[in-house]
Amino acid sequence: MQDFFARPEHGIAWISGASSGIGRALALKLAGDGYKVAVTARDHEKLAELQAEASDLSGSIIVLDGDVTNAEDMEHVLASIEYEHGALALAIFNAGVYLPVHAEELKLADFEQSFAVNLQGVVNCLVPAVRHMKAKGHGQIAIVSSVSGYGGLPTSAAYGATKAALINMAESLKFDLDKMGIRIQLINPGFVDTPGTKRNEFPMPSLVSFEEAAEQISAGLKSRRFEIIFPKRFTYMMKLVNLLPYSLYFWLVNRSTGWRERPLEKHARPGMAHPAE
Q1: Could you tell me which residues come within 8 angstroms of residue 64 by beta carbon, excluding any fewer than 6 positions away?
Q2: Is the domain defined by 8-261 classed in CATH 3.40.50.720?
Q3: Which of 33, 83, 164, 214 could cysteine-pair with 149, CB 3.0–4.6 Å?
């Protein structure tokens, strides 16, 4: 079956987690390319501001409030797209949260919230989207994961676990979606310059801006690549590092982050961010 490449004339583009960061920049990029972009997040005011900012672009922004952790909300979002705005051609599941985890003070809530937003939140969007696209006979889906899903990193026990799960899920679904005419892609960014990453306490090589991330993703959506990665040098380095024997892997990560020399934290520090946040 021939690969489907979504274009504005095919229908609506849907982006979850669009109120800030990569999702917001990508919504503006796609609207500038002529798409009608349905944007979803919990913060209505930020989505309304995004809609106003796109008013002079060739495409447009459609505000559809919703919480990705609520499956019923996502069913309602998809129903609104289908019955009020048109066919869903392109879906980009981007909503995510990073909560740092320190083993000396493990908290159930950090894992529960991370899994609810980053993993179950994608599933809650994915199920109705695939059902809709299956009925149409075509569609394109992109899932935003992270290079931190390649292997364990300091403070990333919850975040990295969800991103590793997304990588495996996208890979596994591709076998059947290919036969259904639905093209699935995986987006694995490195570090993106956000307010959260500015508070990180370790080196962040090859930091890219929101706008650059949106450009890279937009270009990748038009390519035949399954995995969209950027910046390439850093992400390929991360792939290679994770091929090392564990003894070398842990030594290299400790050395590059300076983590072994850091004292144990009495309390996990909020607000730190990992790749793709």
Answers
A1: 38, 39, 40, 77, 80, 81
A2: yes
A3: 164
Handedness of CA 216, 167, 157, 241 (dihedral sign): negative
The DSSP output letter for 13 is E
For residues 182 and 170, the answer to whether their CB atoms sit within 8 Å is no
Terminal C-alpha separation, the chain: 35
Distance between CA atoms of 85 and 79, rounded to whole angstroms? 9
Written as six digits, the tokens of 152 are: 């364990």
The domain spans of the chain are 8-261
What is the longest distance spanned by two Cα atoms in the chain? 57
Contact yes or no for 79/55 (Cβ under 8 A): no
Distance between CA atoms of 187 and 17, rounded to whole angstroms? 14
pLDDT in tens, 33-62: 999 999 999 999 999 999 999 999 999 999
| Structure confidence by residue, pLDDT tens digits, 185-211 | 999 998 776 655 554 555 566 677 889
CA distance 73 to 61: 19
